[in-house]
Amino acid sequence: MTELKRYFAPTSLDQAVECLKGGNVTILAGGTDLTPQSQAGRIKFRETLMNIRHVPQLSGITLEGKEIRIGALATITEIMEHPMVREHLPVLAEACDHFASDQIRNAGTIGGNICNASPAGDMLIPLLVLDACVELASMPESSIYQHCMPIATFFTGPGKTRKSLCELVTGVRIPVPAAGHVSRFYKHGTRPALDISTISIGFAADLLDGVLKNVRVAFGAVAPTPLRATATESALEGRRLDATTIEAAAIAARDEVNPIDDVRATAWYRKEMIHNMTKRILDNVAQA
Description:
Number of helices: 11
Structural class: alpha+beta
CATH architecture of the largest domain: 2-Layer Sandwich
CATH class of the largest domain: Alpha Beta
Shape: globular
Distance between the termini: 53 Å
Largest sheet: 5 strands, antiparallel
Number of strands: 14
């Protein structure tokens, strides 16, 4: 990496993506991941440090047609407290409430959590079960090119995504859930609201006449990337949420993950927690 030589604070999306053309740019938003990682030597600043806090197109939470758009600069606190999120996307608000401390929630942004691409990222699991897509903007020639990538295909490894160095995450788009939508989020750690997850689980589905449809299950901290649990989804799709279905889904969940041993937990413990907490979440949904 080259030494930091330039600081830039764009005030429009055009300015921001034009700055990214060369690719030799470090992006700063809330700084809650970038600052400690750079101080620890895990990240080195590129030639230009670009502060995107003053780009208005990256802010806000709005209803656009049948989608809710959350700007990349929306803080975790802003998302957690927003009436539209609490009404339509309660699983996202629930995850926000388990995100670090008040101080970090006030500064950390959803765009930063996505780009940090941690396998244990708290916002990533609810976004996966909500079928979110990630907005990306670039300027390959003289005008802005924007497109949306499903978050399920966005992550490629710990700290790695399909976003190019010339692209900027501008926000996320989430379809407004249909009537009968149910969802839950669970995070386990030594101090769940402050520590990195030992495991996390997201569940969402449409519950129609007692039958589950459009099931989405995701796990965090059990694979190199946040994981869509397709085998667990198959064990639930089109079924009634009775004791037999719940046990089958919990077993599928345990067998589907392939975690590692690390300082937070052993692989065996993580697999058992996935089994037990998937069962608890589904029991909770069935009783509700």
